[in-house]
Amino acid sequence: MALKVAIVGRPNVGKSTLFNRLVGKRLALVDDRPGVTRDRRYADGVIGDMDLTLIDTAGYEDVTDESLEARMREQTEAAIDDADLILFMMDAREGVTSLDRIFADRLRKVHKPIILLANKSESRESGGGVGEAHGLGFGEPVPISAEHGEGMADLYQAVLAASADIFIEEVDEPEKPIRIAVIGRPNAGKSTLINRLIGDDRLLTGPEAGITRDSISVDWVWEGRNIRLIDTAGMRRKARVQEKLEKLSVADTIRAITFAEVVIMVMDKDDAFDTQDLQLADLVEREGRALVYVAAKWDLEEEPQSRLAELKRLADEKLPQLRGSPFVALSSFNGRGVERLMPAVLQAYDTWSVKVKTKDLNDWLSLATQRHPPPAVDGKRIKPKYIAQTKARPPTFVMMASRAEAMPDHYKRYLVNSIRESFDLQGTPIRLNVKSGSANPYAAGGAKSGPERFKGDAKTAPRRVIKAEKAEKLSNLPGKALEQKAKAGIKPKVKPLGGLKASASKKSGSNAFIGKGARGGARQVSRSGRVRTGQKGGAKR
Questions:
Q1: Staple 72 to which of 58, 276, 529, 538, CB 3.0 to 4.6 Å?
Q2: Where would you find the membrane-spanning parts of this chain (predicted)?
Q3: CA–CA gap between residue 524 and residue 521 (Å, rounded)
Q4: Judgement on whether residues 321 and 200 belong to the same structural domain of the protein
Protein backbone atom coordinates (compact mmCIF):
# COMPACT_ATOMS: atom_id res chain seq x y z
CA MET A 1 0.00 0.00 0.00
CA ALA A 2 1.32 3.46 -0.93
CA LEU A 3 2.02 6.26 1.54
CA LYS A 4 -0.99 8.59 1.94
CA VAL A 5 0.09 12.23 1.67
CA ALA A 6 -2.30 15.17 2.12
CA ILE A 7 -1.40 18.57 0.59
CA VAL A 8 -2.93 21.32 2.72
CA GLY A 9 -2.70 25.08 3.07
CA ARG A 10 -4.65 28.29 2.69
CA PRO A 11 -6.30 29.12 -0.68
CA ASN A 12 -4.22 29.84 -3.81
CA VAL A 13 -0.80 28.71 -2.57
CA GLY A 14 -0.29 26.06 -5.30
CA LYS A 15 -1.62 22.83 -3.79
CA SER A 16 -3.30 21.57 -6.96
CA THR A 17 -0.23 22.46 -9.02
CA LEU A 18 1.98 20.30 -6.79
CA PHE A 19 -0.68 17.58 -6.87
CA ASN A 20 -0.60 17.51 -10.68
CA ARG A 21 3.21 17.57 -10.63
CA LEU A 22 3.49 14.47 -8.42
CA VAL A 23 0.66 12.63 -10.18
CA GLY A 24 2.12 13.30 -13.61
CA LYS A 25 -1.24 14.38 -15.08
CA ARG A 26 -3.39 17.48 -15.07
CA LEU A 27 -6.15 15.96 -12.99
CA ALA A 28 -6.95 18.90 -10.72
CA LEU A 29 -8.22 22.18 -12.14
CA VAL A 30 -5.75 25.05 -11.74
CA ASP A 31 -6.65 28.74 -11.96
CA ASP A 32 -5.34 32.04 -10.62
CA ARG A 33 -8.43 32.71 -8.57
CA PRO A 34 -8.56 31.30 -5.01
CA GLY A 35 -11.01 28.60 -3.99
CA VAL A 36 -11.03 26.56 -7.23
CA THR A 37 -10.67 23.21 -5.42
CA ARG A 38 -13.60 22.33 -3.18
CA ASP A 39 -13.70 18.55 -2.74
CA ARG A 40 -10.78 16.40 -1.72
CA ARG A 41 -9.34 14.38 -4.58
CA TYR A 42 -7.33 11.15 -4.37
CA ALA A 43 -4.81 9.99 -6.98
CA ASP A 44 -1.75 7.75 -7.23
CA GLY A 45 1.57 9.56 -7.60
CA VAL A 46 5.28 9.01 -7.27
CA ILE A 47 8.33 10.92 -6.10
CA GLY A 48 11.70 9.30 -6.70
CA ASP A 49 11.24 5.61 -6.01
CA MET A 50 8.36 6.10 -3.55
CA ASP A 51 4.73 5.34 -4.39
CA LEU A 52 2.27 7.85 -2.97
CA THR A 53 -1.48 8.23 -2.62
CA LEU A 54 -1.92 11.98 -2.89
CA ILE A 55 -4.88 13.93 -1.50
CA ASP A 56 -5.60 17.36 -2.93
CA THR A 57 -7.63 19.54 -0.56
CA ALA A 58 -9.52 22.80 -0.58
CA GLY A 59 -8.00 25.98 0.80
CA TYR A 60 -8.36 26.24 4.56
CA GLU A 61 -10.82 28.92 5.74
CA ASP A 62 -11.29 29.89 9.40
CA VAL A 63 -15.10 29.67 9.41
CA THR A 64 -17.43 27.33 11.32
CA ASP A 65 -20.91 28.42 10.17
CA GLU A 66 -23.19 26.74 7.61
CA SER A 67 -21.55 28.41 4.62
CA LEU A 68 -19.85 26.69 1.69
CA GLU A 69 -16.41 27.61 3.05
CA ALA A 70 -17.19 25.87 6.32
CA ARG A 71 -18.14 22.70 4.47
CA MET A 72 -14.92 22.94 2.47
CA ARG A 73 -12.99 23.15 5.73
CA GLU A 74 -14.65 19.93 6.89
CA GLN A 75 -13.40 18.21 3.73
CA THR A 76 -9.85 19.40 4.44
CA GLU A 77 -9.97 18.16 8.02
CA ALA A 78 -11.23 14.77 6.80
CA ALA A 79 -8.20 14.57 4.47
CA ILE A 80 -5.85 15.36 7.39
CA ASP A 81 -7.37 12.57 9.47
CA ASP A 82 -7.04 10.09 6.58
CA ALA A 83 -3.42 10.90 5.65
CA ASP A 84 -0.18 9.37 6.95
CA LEU A 85 1.95 12.43 6.10
CA ILE A 86 1.00 16.08 5.71
CA LEU A 87 2.58 18.61 3.35
CA PHE A 88 1.81 22.08 4.73
CA MET A 89 2.26 24.60 1.91
CA MET A 90 2.68 28.40 2.18
CA ASP A 91 3.39 31.12 -0.39
CA ALA A 92 7.01 32.32 -0.15
CA ARG A 93 6.27 35.46 -2.18
CA GLU A 94 3.60 36.75 0.20
CA GLY A 95 5.28 35.45 3.35
CA VAL A 96 3.51 34.11 6.41
CA THR A 97 -0.05 35.43 6.78
CA SER A 98 -2.44 35.37 9.74
CA LEU A 99 -4.38 32.49 8.13
CA ASP A 100 -1.15 30.50 7.85
CA ARG A 101 -0.57 30.94 11.59
CA ILE A 102 -4.15 29.88 12.42
CA PHE A 103 -3.80 26.78 10.26
CA ALA A 104 -0.39 26.02 11.80
CA ASP A 105 -1.96 26.06 15.27
CA ARG A 106 -4.57 23.56 14.00
CA LEU A 107 -1.88 21.26 12.57
CA ARG A 108 0.18 21.21 15.77
CA LYS A 109 -2.63 19.26 17.43
CA VAL A 110 -2.29 16.50 14.82
CA HIS A 111 0.15 13.80 15.85
CA LYS A 112 1.44 13.10 12.34
CA PRO A 113 4.63 14.02 10.45
CA ILE A 114 4.35 17.48 8.87
CA ILE A 115 6.65 18.91 6.20
CA LEU A 116 6.57 22.67 5.63
CA LEU A 117 6.81 23.69 1.94
CA ALA A 118 7.66 27.23 0.81
CA ASN A 119 6.16 27.30 -2.69
CA LYS A 120 6.93 29.85 -5.45
CA SER A 121 10.57 30.08 -4.37
CA GLU A 122 12.00 30.40 -7.89
CA SER A 123 12.55 34.19 -7.65
CA ARG A 124 14.68 36.41 -5.43
CA GLU A 125 11.56 37.98 -3.96
CA SER A 126 10.75 34.76 -2.13
CA GLY A 127 13.84 34.82 0.12
CA GLY A 128 12.13 36.81 2.88
CA GLY A 129 9.10 34.50 2.88
CA VAL A 130 11.28 31.42 3.30
CA GLY A 131 12.92 33.08 6.33
CA GLU A 132 9.55 33.90 7.87
CA ALA A 133 8.46 30.28 7.50
CA HIS A 134 10.85 29.25 10.29
CA GLY A 135 8.54 31.01 12.74
CA LEU A 136 5.68 28.55 12.12
CA GLY A 137 7.45 25.94 14.24
CA PHE A 138 7.72 23.04 11.78
CA GLY A 139 11.48 23.08 11.36
CA GLU A 140 13.43 23.89 8.20
CA PRO A 141 11.06 24.77 5.29
CA VAL A 142 11.65 23.10 1.92
CA PRO A 143 11.78 25.75 -0.84
CA ILE A 144 10.12 24.46 -4.02
CA SER A 145 8.47 25.67 -7.20
CA ALA A 146 5.53 23.41 -8.01
CA GLU A 147 4.95 25.09 -11.37
CA HIS A 148 8.55 24.80 -12.62
CA GLY A 149 9.47 21.57 -10.82
CA GLU A 150 12.28 23.05 -8.74
CA GLY A 151 13.17 21.58 -5.35
CA MET A 152 11.68 18.11 -6.01
CA ALA A 153 14.92 16.40 -4.95
CA ASP A 154 14.83 18.20 -1.60
CA LEU A 155 11.15 17.28 -1.21
CA TYR A 156 11.97 13.62 -1.85
CA GLN A 157 14.64 13.64 0.87
CA ALA A 158 12.23 15.28 3.31
CA VAL A 159 9.43 12.77 2.56
CA LEU A 160 11.88 9.87 2.84
CA ALA A 161 13.10 11.06 6.27
CA ALA A 162 9.62 11.83 7.59
CA SER A 163 8.15 8.48 6.53
CA ALA A 164 10.91 6.33 8.02
CA ASP A 165 8.83 5.45 11.09
CA ILE A 166 5.50 5.04 9.23
CA PHE A 167 4.34 1.45 8.80
CA ILE A 168 2.93 0.84 5.31
CA GLU A 169 0.81 -2.28 5.08
CA GLU A 170 1.25 -4.46 2.00
CA VAL A 171 -2.06 -5.04 0.25
CA ASP A 172 -2.71 -7.21 -2.78
CA GLU A 173 -3.44 -5.38 -5.99
CA PRO A 174 -7.24 -5.14 -6.29
CA GLU A 175 -8.99 -6.14 -9.47
CA LYS A 176 -9.89 -3.47 -11.97
CA PRO A 177 -12.98 -1.55 -10.78
CA ILE A 178 -16.04 -0.76 -12.87
CA ARG A 179 -15.87 2.94 -13.73
CA ILE A 180 -19.23 4.66 -13.35
CA ALA A 181 -19.63 8.38 -14.17
CA VAL A 182 -22.54 10.36 -12.74
CA ILE A 183 -23.53 13.26 -15.01
CA GLY A 184 -26.36 15.76 -15.28
CA ARG A 185 -27.23 19.42 -15.15
CA PRO A 186 -26.21 21.63 -12.20
CA ASN A 187 -28.04 21.02 -8.92
CA ALA A 188 -29.57 17.75 -10.13
CA GLY A 189 -28.39 15.84 -7.05
CA LYS A 190 -25.35 13.96 -8.36
CA SER A 191 -23.11 14.39 -5.31
CA THR A 192 -25.98 13.66 -2.93
CA LEU A 193 -26.70 10.42 -4.78
CA ILE A 194 -23.08 9.25 -4.47
CA ASN A 195 -23.01 10.08 -0.77
CA ARG A 196 -26.22 8.07 -0.30
CA LEU A 197 -24.77 5.09 -2.19
CA ILE A 198 -21.52 4.86 -0.22
CA GLY A 199 -23.14 5.82 3.09
CA ASP A 200 -20.72 8.68 3.85
CA ASP A 201 -20.54 12.44 3.31
CA ARG A 202 -17.59 12.02 0.99
CA LEU A 203 -18.54 14.80 -1.46
CA LEU A 204 -19.42 18.41 -0.84
CA THR A 205 -23.15 19.05 -1.19
CA GLY A 206 -25.52 21.94 -0.64
CA PRO A 207 -28.39 23.94 -2.10
CA GLU A 208 -26.03 26.06 -4.22
CA ALA A 209 -25.80 25.17 -7.91
CA GLY A 210 -22.40 24.34 -9.36
CA ILE A 211 -20.62 23.28 -6.16
CA THR A 212 -18.70 20.46 -7.84
CA ARG A 213 -16.00 21.70 -10.23
CA ASP A 214 -13.58 18.77 -10.56
CA SER A 215 -14.39 15.20 -11.53
CA ILE A 216 -13.94 13.42 -8.21
CA SER A 217 -13.47 9.62 -8.18
CA VAL A 218 -14.59 7.57 -5.18
CA ASP A 219 -13.59 3.91 -4.80
CA TRP A 220 -16.26 1.68 -3.31
CA VAL A 221 -17.07 -2.02 -2.94
CA TRP A 222 -20.63 -3.21 -3.59
CA GLU A 223 -21.41 -6.88 -2.95
CA GLY A 224 -17.81 -7.90 -3.52
CA ARG A 225 -17.32 -5.95 -6.75
CA ASN A 226 -14.95 -2.99 -6.95
CA ILE A 227 -16.72 0.16 -8.08
CA ARG A 228 -15.24 3.55 -8.93
CA LEU A 229 -17.86 6.31 -8.84
CA ILE A 230 -16.92 9.54 -10.62
CA ASP A 231 -18.76 12.69 -9.60
CA THR A 232 -18.76 15.34 -12.34
CA ALA A 233 -19.56 19.01 -12.61
CA GLY A 234 -22.99 20.01 -13.86
CA MET A 235 -23.14 20.80 -17.58
CA ARG A 236 -25.19 23.73 -18.77
CA ARG A 237 -25.96 24.70 -22.33
CA LYS A 238 -22.89 25.60 -24.34
CA ALA A 239 -24.15 29.13 -25.02
CA ARG A 240 -24.32 29.85 -21.29
CA VAL A 241 -20.79 28.65 -20.52
CA GLN A 242 -18.66 31.80 -20.67
CA GLU A 243 -16.15 31.69 -17.82
CA LYS A 244 -12.82 29.94 -18.26
CA LEU A 245 -13.22 27.92 -15.07
CA GLU A 246 -16.60 26.55 -16.13
CA LYS A 247 -15.19 25.60 -19.52
CA LEU A 248 -12.46 23.64 -17.75
CA SER A 249 -15.09 21.89 -15.63
CA VAL A 250 -17.13 20.93 -18.69
CA ALA A 251 -14.01 19.58 -20.42
CA ASP A 252 -13.24 17.54 -17.30
CA THR A 253 -16.77 16.11 -17.35
CA ILE A 254 -16.47 15.10 -21.00
CA ARG A 255 -13.17 13.40 -20.24
CA ALA A 256 -14.83 11.48 -17.39
CA ILE A 257 -17.54 10.26 -19.79
CA THR A 258 -14.89 9.13 -22.27
CA PHE A 259 -13.06 7.00 -19.70
CA ALA A 260 -16.19 5.64 -17.99
CA GLU A 261 -17.85 2.30 -18.71
CA VAL A 262 -21.34 3.03 -17.43
CA VAL A 263 -22.88 6.51 -17.21
CA ILE A 264 -25.67 7.44 -14.80
CA MET A 265 -27.58 10.48 -16.05
CA VAL A 266 -29.36 12.20 -13.16
CA MET A 267 -32.38 14.34 -14.10
CA ASP A 268 -34.88 16.41 -12.19
CA LYS A 269 -38.28 14.72 -12.31
CA ASP A 270 -40.07 17.96 -13.24
CA ASP A 271 -38.09 18.83 -16.39
CA ALA A 272 -36.52 15.53 -17.40
CA PHE A 273 -35.45 15.01 -21.03
CA ASP A 274 -35.20 18.65 -21.93
CA THR A 275 -32.73 19.80 -24.59
CA GLN A 276 -29.64 19.60 -22.38
CA ASP A 277 -30.51 16.11 -21.12
CA LEU A 278 -31.00 14.89 -24.68
CA GLN A 279 -27.64 16.32 -25.72
CA LEU A 280 -25.90 14.63 -22.80
CA ALA A 281 -27.52 11.28 -23.60
CA ASP A 282 -26.57 11.62 -27.25
CA LEU A 283 -22.97 12.35 -26.20
CA VAL A 284 -22.93 9.15 -24.12
CA GLU A 285 -24.25 7.14 -27.09
CA ARG A 286 -21.65 8.61 -29.46
CA GLU A 287 -18.90 7.71 -26.99
CA GLY A 288 -20.27 4.16 -26.89
CA ARG A 289 -21.00 3.94 -23.15
CA ALA A 290 -23.81 2.13 -21.34
CA LEU A 291 -26.46 4.52 -19.98
CA VAL A 292 -28.81 4.40 -16.98
CA TYR A 293 -31.51 7.06 -16.50
CA VAL A 294 -32.19 8.34 -12.97
CA ALA A 295 -35.15 10.55 -12.06
CA ALA A 296 -34.15 12.27 -8.81
CA LYS A 297 -36.24 13.92 -6.10
CA TRP A 298 -38.93 11.26 -6.54
CA ASP A 299 -40.19 11.73 -2.98
CA LEU A 300 -41.83 14.97 -4.10
CA GLU A 301 -43.84 13.31 -6.92
CA GLU A 302 -47.57 13.13 -6.27
CA GLU A 303 -48.43 10.58 -9.02
CA PRO A 304 -45.37 8.34 -9.29
CA GLN A 305 -46.83 5.54 -11.45
CA SER A 306 -48.24 7.67 -14.26
CA ARG A 307 -45.23 10.00 -14.23
CA LEU A 308 -42.80 7.08 -14.48
CA ALA A 309 -44.70 5.62 -17.45
CA GLU A 310 -44.64 9.00 -19.15
CA LEU A 311 -40.87 9.41 -18.62
CA LYS A 312 -40.17 5.93 -20.04
CA ARG A 313 -42.26 6.79 -23.09
CA LEU A 314 -40.30 10.03 -23.56
CA ALA A 315 -37.01 8.16 -23.30
CA ASP A 316 -37.94 5.68 -26.04
CA GLU A 317 -39.47 8.38 -28.23
CA LYS A 318 -36.72 11.00 -28.06
CA LEU A 319 -33.74 8.64 -27.78
CA PRO A 320 -34.56 5.65 -30.00
CA GLN A 321 -30.85 4.82 -30.40
CA LEU A 322 -30.82 3.95 -26.67
CA ARG A 323 -34.17 2.21 -26.56
CA GLY A 324 -34.58 -0.01 -23.51
CA SER A 325 -32.04 1.70 -21.24
CA PRO A 326 -32.71 1.05 -17.52
CA PHE A 327 -34.81 3.71 -15.80
CA VAL A 328 -34.68 4.20 -12.02
CA ALA A 329 -36.77 6.66 -10.02
CA LEU A 330 -35.34 7.45 -6.58
CA SER A 331 -34.84 10.01 -3.85
CA SER A 332 -31.30 10.65 -2.63
CA PHE A 333 -32.62 12.65 0.30
CA ASN A 334 -34.44 9.80 2.09
CA GLY A 335 -32.97 6.83 0.17
CA ARG A 336 -36.22 5.74 -1.47
CA GLY A 337 -35.52 3.57 -4.54
CA VAL A 338 -31.71 3.81 -4.26
CA GLU A 339 -31.42 0.03 -3.75
CA ARG A 340 -32.62 -0.50 -7.34
CA LEU A 341 -29.84 1.59 -8.90
CA MET A 342 -26.79 -0.68 -8.64
CA PRO A 343 -28.56 -3.82 -10.01
CA ALA A 344 -29.63 -1.73 -13.01
CA VAL A 345 -26.08 -0.41 -13.45
CA LEU A 346 -24.54 -3.89 -13.39
CA GLN A 347 -27.21 -5.17 -15.78
CA ALA A 348 -26.31 -2.38 -18.22
CA TYR A 349 -22.61 -3.19 -17.77
CA ASP A 350 -23.13 -6.89 -18.52
CA THR A 351 -25.18 -6.07 -21.62
CA TRP A 352 -22.50 -3.63 -22.75
CA SER A 353 -19.86 -6.38 -22.43
CA VAL A 354 -21.81 -9.16 -24.18
CA LYS A 355 -20.32 -11.30 -26.99
CA VAL A 356 -22.51 -13.10 -29.53
CA LYS A 357 -21.44 -16.27 -31.36
CA THR A 358 -20.84 -15.98 -35.09
CA LYS A 359 -23.13 -18.93 -35.85
CA ASP A 360 -26.04 -17.32 -34.01
CA LEU A 361 -25.41 -14.06 -35.82
CA ASN A 362 -25.50 -15.65 -39.26
CA ASP A 363 -28.67 -17.57 -38.40
CA TRP A 364 -30.20 -14.28 -37.37
CA LEU A 365 -28.99 -12.59 -40.59
CA SER A 366 -30.68 -15.22 -42.72
CA LEU A 367 -34.00 -14.76 -40.91
CA ALA A 368 -33.75 -10.96 -40.88
CA THR A 369 -33.09 -10.72 -44.63
CA GLN A 370 -35.94 -13.15 -45.37
CA ARG A 371 -38.35 -11.13 -43.26
CA HIS A 372 -37.25 -7.82 -44.79
CA PRO A 373 -34.99 -8.19 -47.87
CA PRO A 374 -32.50 -5.43 -48.67
CA PRO A 375 -33.82 -2.81 -51.11
CA ALA A 376 -32.72 -2.58 -54.72
CA VAL A 377 -30.61 0.50 -55.42
CA ASP A 378 -30.28 1.61 -59.05
CA GLY A 379 -31.95 -1.59 -60.16
CA LYS A 380 -29.44 -3.86 -58.40
CA ARG A 381 -30.21 -5.66 -55.15
CA ILE A 382 -27.78 -5.67 -52.19
CA LYS A 383 -26.85 -9.17 -51.03
CA PRO A 384 -25.67 -9.61 -47.39
CA LYS A 385 -23.19 -12.50 -47.12
CA TYR A 386 -22.22 -13.01 -43.47
CA ILE A 387 -21.78 -11.12 -40.16
CA ALA A 388 -19.46 -11.40 -37.16
CA GLN A 389 -18.82 -9.51 -33.90
CA THR A 390 -15.37 -7.91 -33.86
CA LYS A 391 -15.38 -6.52 -30.31
CA ALA A 392 -17.49 -5.73 -27.26
CA ARG A 393 -17.83 -2.62 -25.07
CA PRO A 394 -19.80 -1.52 -27.02
CA PRO A 395 -20.93 -4.48 -29.18
CA THR A 396 -19.49 -3.92 -32.65
CA PHE A 397 -20.48 -6.01 -35.68
CA VAL A 398 -19.09 -6.22 -39.22
CA MET A 399 -21.33 -7.43 -42.06
CA MET A 400 -19.98 -8.35 -45.49
CA ALA A 401 -22.32 -7.55 -48.38
CA SER A 402 -22.21 -6.79 -52.05
CA ARG A 403 -22.51 -3.08 -52.90
CA ALA A 404 -22.13 -2.18 -49.22
CA GLU A 405 -21.62 1.50 -49.97
CA ALA A 406 -25.11 1.65 -51.50
CA MET A 407 -26.93 0.21 -48.45
CA PRO A 408 -29.42 2.84 -47.18
CA ASP A 409 -29.25 4.09 -43.62
CA HIS A 410 -32.81 3.05 -42.86
CA TYR A 411 -31.97 -0.58 -43.60
CA LYS A 412 -28.92 -0.37 -41.31
CA ARG A 413 -31.19 0.94 -38.55
CA TYR A 414 -33.53 -1.98 -39.19
CA LEU A 415 -30.64 -4.42 -38.76
CA VAL A 416 -29.42 -2.70 -35.56
CA ASN A 417 -32.91 -2.76 -34.03
CA SER A 418 -33.32 -6.40 -35.01
CA ILE A 419 -29.99 -7.28 -33.35
CA ARG A 420 -31.08 -5.40 -30.22
CA GLU A 421 -34.37 -7.32 -30.00
CA SER A 422 -33.08 -10.74 -31.03
CA PHE A 423 -30.12 -10.86 -28.63
CA ASP A 424 -31.63 -8.77 -25.79
CA LEU A 425 -29.16 -5.89 -26.05
CA GLN A 426 -31.56 -3.31 -24.69
CA GLY A 427 -30.17 0.12 -23.91
CA THR A 428 -26.59 -0.40 -25.08
CA PRO A 429 -25.02 1.36 -28.08
CA ILE A 430 -24.53 -0.95 -31.09
CA ARG A 431 -22.05 -0.38 -33.92
CA LEU A 432 -22.68 -1.99 -37.33
CA ASN A 433 -20.10 -1.65 -40.11
CA VAL A 434 -21.01 -2.87 -43.60
CA LYS A 435 -18.15 -3.78 -45.94
CA SER A 436 -17.94 -5.09 -49.49
CA GLY A 437 -15.16 -7.60 -48.91
CA SER A 438 -11.88 -7.78 -50.79
CA ALA A 439 -11.55 -5.49 -53.79
CA ASN A 440 -10.13 -6.43 -57.23
CA PRO A 441 -6.32 -6.33 -56.80
CA TYR A 442 -5.81 -5.66 -60.51
CA ALA A 443 -8.14 -2.68 -60.62
CA ALA A 444 -6.75 0.84 -60.70
CA GLY A 445 -5.20 1.57 -57.33
CA GLY A 446 -5.24 -2.12 -56.30
CA ALA A 447 -2.40 -4.02 -54.70
CA LYS A 448 -1.29 -5.54 -58.04
CA SER A 449 -2.25 -2.76 -60.39
CA GLY A 450 1.36 -1.49 -60.57
CA PRO A 451 2.49 2.10 -61.02
CA GLU A 452 0.40 4.23 -63.33
CA ARG A 453 2.10 5.09 -66.61
CA PHE A 454 2.07 8.57 -68.08
CA LYS A 455 0.07 8.48 -71.30
CA GLY A 456 0.69 12.04 -72.35
CA ASP A 457 -1.77 14.85 -72.74
CA ALA A 458 -5.20 13.70 -73.79
CA LYS A 459 -6.41 14.84 -77.22
CA THR A 460 -9.92 15.90 -76.69
CA ALA A 461 -10.49 17.68 -80.00
CA PRO A 462 -11.88 15.60 -82.92
CA ARG A 463 -9.28 14.31 -85.36
CA ARG A 464 -10.79 16.01 -88.40
CA VAL A 465 -10.68 19.34 -86.63
CA ILE A 466 -6.92 18.89 -86.09
CA LYS A 467 -6.45 18.01 -89.77
CA ALA A 468 -8.49 21.02 -90.77
CA GLU A 469 -6.29 23.27 -88.65
CA LYS A 470 -3.15 21.78 -90.22
CA ALA A 471 -4.61 22.12 -93.73
CA GLU A 472 -5.17 25.80 -93.21
CA LYS A 473 -1.51 26.36 -92.43
CA LEU A 474 -0.16 24.54 -95.54
CA SER A 475 1.30 26.48 -98.43
CA ASN A 476 -0.46 26.71 -101.78
CA LEU A 477 2.68 25.60 -103.63
CA PRO A 478 2.73 21.80 -104.19
CA GLY A 479 6.42 21.30 -103.40
CA LYS A 480 6.36 23.54 -100.35
CA ALA A 481 3.24 21.80 -99.06
CA LEU A 482 4.93 18.40 -99.24
CA GLU A 483 7.87 19.64 -97.19
CA GLN A 484 5.51 21.04 -94.55
CA LYS A 485 3.59 17.75 -94.37
CA ALA A 486 6.83 15.77 -94.03
CA LYS A 487 7.94 17.93 -91.10
CA ALA A 488 4.49 17.65 -89.50
CA GLY A 489 4.49 13.85 -89.89
CA ILE A 490 1.55 13.71 -92.30
CA LYS A 491 1.82 10.92 -94.87
CA PRO A 492 1.00 11.78 -98.47
CA LYS A 493 -2.42 10.79 -99.67
CA VAL A 494 -2.77 8.02 -102.22
CA LYS A 495 -5.89 8.51 -104.33
CA PRO A 496 -7.32 6.28 -107.05
CA LEU A 497 -7.33 7.76 -110.51
CA GLY A 498 -10.75 8.94 -111.35
CA GLY A 499 -11.98 8.11 -114.86
CA LEU A 500 -9.66 5.07 -115.39
CA LYS A 501 -11.09 1.83 -116.61
CA ALA A 502 -10.29 -1.37 -114.74
CA SER A 503 -9.45 -3.17 -118.02
CA ALA A 504 -6.85 -0.58 -118.91
CA SER A 505 -5.06 -0.95 -115.58
CA LYS A 506 -5.05 -4.72 -115.86
CA LYS A 507 -3.69 -4.70 -119.42
CA SER A 508 -0.84 -2.39 -118.61
CA GLY A 509 0.03 -4.37 -115.48
CA SER A 510 0.67 -1.17 -113.56
CA ASN A 511 -0.90 0.05 -110.38
CA ALA A 512 -3.96 2.14 -110.74
CA PHE A 513 -2.81 4.46 -107.92
CA ILE A 514 -0.17 7.11 -108.22
CA GLY A 515 1.44 9.40 -105.78
CA LYS A 516 2.68 12.93 -106.05
CA GLY A 517 6.35 13.38 -106.70
CA ALA A 518 8.71 14.84 -104.18
CA ARG A 519 9.49 17.92 -106.20
CA GLY A 520 7.58 18.23 -109.41
CA GLY A 521 4.10 17.70 -108.18
CA ALA A 522 1.82 15.20 -109.97
CA ARG A 523 3.28 13.00 -112.73
CA GLN A 524 1.76 12.91 -116.17
CA VAL A 525 -0.36 9.88 -117.07
CA SER A 526 -1.41 8.77 -120.56
CA ARG A 527 -4.90 7.80 -121.54
CA SER A 528 -3.96 4.11 -121.31
CA GLY A 529 -3.00 4.57 -117.66
CA ARG A 530 0.78 4.41 -118.09
CA VAL A 531 3.00 6.89 -116.38
CA ARG A 532 5.11 8.93 -118.70
CA THR A 533 8.77 8.68 -117.81
CA GLY A 534 10.30 10.80 -120.49
CA GLN A 535 12.71 13.69 -120.16
CA LYS A 536 12.00 16.88 -118.39
CA GLY A 537 9.57 18.93 -120.25
CA GLY A 538 7.87 16.08 -122.17
CA ALA A 539 7.79 12.34 -123.01
CA LYS A 540 9.76 10.61 -125.79
CA ARG A 541 8.01 9.40 -128.88
A1: 58
A2: none
A3: 10
A4: yes
* 9 is annotated as contributing to ligand binding: yes
Domain that holds residue 314: 178-352
127 annotated among ligand-binding-site residues: no
Task: Tell me: is residue 436 an annotated ligand-binding position.
Answer: no
**Residues 105 and 220 grouped into a single domain:** no
58 is in an annotated binding site: yes
The reply to whether 296 and 192 lie within a common domain is yes
- Binding residue per annotation — 64? no
Same domain, 342 and 375: no
User: How many domains does one find in the chain?
Assistant: 3
185 is in an annotated binding site: yes
Per run of 10 residues, the mean pLDDT along the chain (length 541 residues) is: 90 93 89 84 91 92 83 91 94 91 92 92 78 88 92 94 80 81 92 93 85 89 93 84 82 92 93 90 93 92 90 91 92 91 95 94 94 88 91 93 89 93 92 79 58 54 49 58 69 54 46 46 55 50 41
Residue 388 in any domain: the answer is yes
Question: Domain with 312 in it: what CATH number?
Answer: 3.40.50.300
Q: Is 191 annotated as a binding residue?
A: yes
User: Is 233 annotated in some ligand binding site?
Assistant: yes
112 is in an annotated binding site: no
Dihedral of alpha carbons 484, 486, 489, 492, sign: positive
**232 labelled as ligand-binding?**
yes
391 labeled part of a ligand binding site = no
Do 348 and 362 belong together in one domain? Answer: no
Give one DSSP letter per residue of 357-425, joined into a string: -HHHHHHHHHHHHHHSPPPEETTEE--EEEEEEEETTTTEEEEEETTGGG--HHHHHHHHHHHHHHTT-
- Final residue in a domain of this structure, among 307, 328, 352: 352
Residue 405 lies in a domain: yes
Could you tell me if 259 and 392 lie in one domain?
no
Residue 16 among known ligand-binding residues: yes
Together in a domain, 321 and 195: yes
The pLDDT value given to residue 466: 47
Rounded Cα gap, residues 376 and 502, in angstroms? 64
338 located within any domain: yes
pLDDT confidence of residue 122 = 84
Contact in structure between 492 and 482 (CB atoms under 8 Å): yes
The answer to whether 120 is a known ligand-binding residue is yes
First to last CA, the chain: 129
Q: Binding site annotation covers 10?
A: yes
Q: Identify the CATH number of the domain in which residue 371 sits.
A: 3.30.300.20
Q: Do strands 216-222 and 225-231 pair parallel, antiparallel, or not at all (unpaired)?
A: antiparallel
